[in-house]
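Input chain follows. Return structure tokens only.
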Amino acid sequence: MSIIRGQVGASGNPVLGHGFSSERTGTGTYTVTFDSAFKELPVIVATALATSSGQDRIVTLYSTSREGFSITTRKAKTSDRENTAFNFEASDDYTCEDC
């Protein structure tokens, strides 16, 4: 089982966490690469951080793999891409003791 958690700044730099690198590849578009690939395809959850304006943001994951993922961040009201910090967690622990 592996878990990687982190925070990526609006500029694309890693802010919190370890075991990954990140970069902004375009307006509101980011790539996160894990230092070591997961054994299985991980489940990835991401959440945009609130901005000073208080406007809601949307994150969309795509191109997920054992090696990393790409994400876009957008304004909820207009769907325009915008550089926004986000948190994520990636895990390949599919165990469910109570399922």
